[in-house]
Design brief:
Strand order of the largest sheet: 5-6-7-8
Distance between the termini: 25 Å
Number of helices: 13
Shape: globular
Radius of gyration: 20 Å
Helix content: 40-55%
């Protein structure tokens, strides 16, 4: 047994002995989030703060940094959080608003964005596959907890259309299956463009298992192969192309690891892939940049140049520091992490949501990375 696994087991044992719940319950129940829906939920206060800051009274999750928009990502993230925390009043609000305003395509997928300009509306009916995936996962989670067949039927319809509209064979002859970022706009003459931060392995596997859309689990496994290859060159790129000759950088994209790709190691850790090469590559980038200091100094790294490792952008939002601390801990040899205390003050929807997700991932998948 290596030291890393020993630390993990000791942390889990400590959770059992102290009665702290979530860390112990995960491995023993079919629902890894069961403890979050009880009074012992350690994230009740952060969840309440998240709702107060970003969830409107009508169920719209508002992204103030994106023109006050709501999108399938924000609605999917919000619905999943509500399901995890067993907050079905919030779940119903988010679900009802989303069904009324984004479920307007001819298939079962969601239009990707709603803008509040004028009377509000959807300027583009294209979908976003990550929003659909998280939305379906949330439906599955609640449907399984409550025996709610209508929600499971909705999840099945989304999963089936996600496969039909957004899953394609890689053009490199590998036989791998790829999940497109959307139904339109990502298949070109030179190849297929994908975004690996849209791949949430745990969600893909759980939705596939519950709905029978097995291609999603295949995409997760095949995406892992691509991530492993790219990790040899550094942290994940925001966008990557797959063409007849293999991987390539899309012409209209720079070789950056930024606001998109920062989610890759978070989702890998949350999915139990704590030793993944992509997690190690991201941690190495943070360390080289000296990005693990005081999160309140305002220099939390958000964008790297992959080739040089140079820092391109930083932010004052502490949610980005939470990601860095979680990723760093998962490649360290000691227990405990520097994940900052959750807050919504001076923090926008996106980093605040990633911060909350990092805390969920820590509790469910990386108990030894408890904040210190």
């Amino acid at each position: 047994m290596n030291r890393r696994n020993a630390l993990r087991q000791m942390a889990c044992l400590a959770a059992v002995c102290s009665g702290l719940g979530p860390m112990a319950v995960v491995a023993q129940t079919a629902d890894p989030f069961a403890e979050f829906s009880t009074e012992r939920n350690p994230l009740n206060v952060p969840w309440a703060a998240w709702k107060a800051a970003y969830l409107s009274d009508d169920g719209r999750v508002v992204d103030t940094m994106q023109q006050g928009a709501s999108h399938s990502e924000s609605q999917g993230y919000g619905l999943l959080l509500a399901a995890i925390f067993g907050d079905y009043a919030a779940f119903d609000l988010i679900f009802d608003w989303t069904e009324a305003n984004l479920a307007i395509r001819s298939d079962s997928l969601l239009a990707w964005r709603w803008l509040p300009e004028g009377n509000g509306g959807v300027p583009d009916l294209n979908n976003a596959s990550d929003g659909d995936l998280f939305y379906a996962w949330a439906l599955v989670l609640r449907a399984q907890r409550e025996g709610y067949p209508a929600l499971m039927d909705r999840a099945r319809a989304i999963a089936a259309d996600l496969v039909a509209q957004c899953v394609v064979l890689a053009p490199d002859g590998s036989g791998r299956m790829l999940m497109l970022p959307a139904a339109q706009g990502f298949v070109h003459e030179e190849g297929v463009i994908i975004n690996l931060s849209y791949y949430m392995p745990l969600a893909m596997r759980e939705v596939a298992r519950a709905t029978g859309a097995r291609a999603l689990a295949t995409c997760a496994a095949d995406g892992d192969v691509i991530m492993q290859a790219l990790s040899q060159e550094g942290p994940m790129p925001d966008w990557i192309g797959v063409g007849p000759q293999g991987l390539f950088l899309p012409r209209d994209q720079s070789d950056r690891n930024g606001y998109e790709a920062m989610r890759v190691p978070l989702f890998l850790i949350w999915s139990g892939n704590t030793n993944h090469a992509a997690v190690a590559a991201q941690a190495a980038a943070y360390r080289r940049a000296g990005a693990l200091g005081d999160p309140d100094m305002g220099n939390n790294v958000t964008v790297f140049d992959r080739a040089s490792g140079a820092v391109i952008e930083t932010s004052h939002h502490v949610g980005y520091a939470a990601l860095a601390a979680l990723v760093d801990c998962n490649t360290a040899s000691t227990a405990g992490s520097a994940i900052p205390v959750y807050r919504t003050v001076d923090q926008a929807y996106y980093p605040a949501t990633l911060h909350l997700m990092a805390l969920i991932a820590q509790i469910t998948a990386a108990p030894e990375c408890v904040p210190i």
